[in-house]
Design goal:
The relative contact order is 0.20. The protein is of the alpha/beta class. It starts with 5 loop residues before the first strand and ends in a 9-residue tail after the last helix. It has a single domain (6-17, 26-209), classed as Nitrile hydratase alpha /Thiocyanate hydrolase gamma (Nitrile Hydratase, Chain A, Alpha-Beta Complex). Helix 2 packs across helix 3 (80-88) and helix 3 packs across helix 4. Helix content is 43%, strand content 12%.
């Protein structure tokens, strides 16, 4: 359901039809595989339970991780110089706040405006900026989201409760192992007088992926 206003930007991920910048070989150094193996060993040894691990993952996914990105966004909203640095070199600007490392070695920030709405997807797997967003949600990794976000972004956004005006261009950013994206959402109306900590509480994980607006989270 893509329109003339919808744009799919692969960046360095834009290769030929059979070369997408991803390797499908099993990588023994893949953090997700190593974590899964460690979890299995700990559960089998009786040192932890799957329920405790799930609770820890949930806390990291919905609290600790996304709050890093929320602080980045809040600073960009309140500090024009920082915002300019973030849009120019997100990796360096994010590192100023102490965030970076594995799964976020190369970051690019894309800004939502009245004219452009940005949406992030990884069409072939689940590349995701862990240092600023924590663990990827299950829907982000699903084949349905990965396919439909590109094919019919407006319909996908509506399912998240996000209506984008017909005249607003939708840009799709395809994350890869080489580059990860962070959406800088628009600041909610009527919040100009708030400080960074208050503003950060308005920025949820979904807004920084682009499926929701800041201040509107599930």
């Amino acid at each position: 359901m893509s329109s003339d206003h919808d744009h799919h930007d692969h960046g360095p991920h834009d290769h030929g039809p059979h070369d997408h910048g991803h390797s499908h070989a099993v990588d023994k150094n893949d953090p997700s595989l190593r974590v899964e193996a460690i979890e299995s060993l700990l559960v089998e040894a009786g040192l932890v339970t799957s329920e405790k691990i799930d609770a820890l993952v949930d806390r990291y996914q919905h609290d600790i991780g996304p709050m890093n990105g929320a602080r980045v966004v809040a600073k960009a909203w309140t500090d024009p110089d920082y915002r300019a640095r973030l849009l120019d070199d997100a990796t360096a600007a994010i590192a100023e706040l102490g965030y970076g490392g594995a799964q976020g070695e190369k970051m690019v920030a894309v800004e939502n405006t009245d004219d452009v709405h940005n949406l992030v997807v990884c069409t072939l797997c689940s590349c995701y900026p862990w240092p600023v967003l924590g663990l990827p949600p299950s829907w982000y990794k699903s084949h349905e989201y990965r396919a439909r976000a590109v094919r019919e972004p407006r319909a996908v956004l509506k399912e998240f409760g996000t209506d984008v005006a017909d005249e607003t261009e939708i840009k799709i950013w395809d994350s890869s192992a080489e580059i990860r994206y962070l959406v800088l959402p628009q600041q909610p109306p009527g919040t100009d007088g708030l400080g960074e900590e208050e503003l950060a509480r308005l920025v949820g994980r979904d807004a920084m992926i682009g499926v929701r607006l800041a201040g509107v989270e599930s």
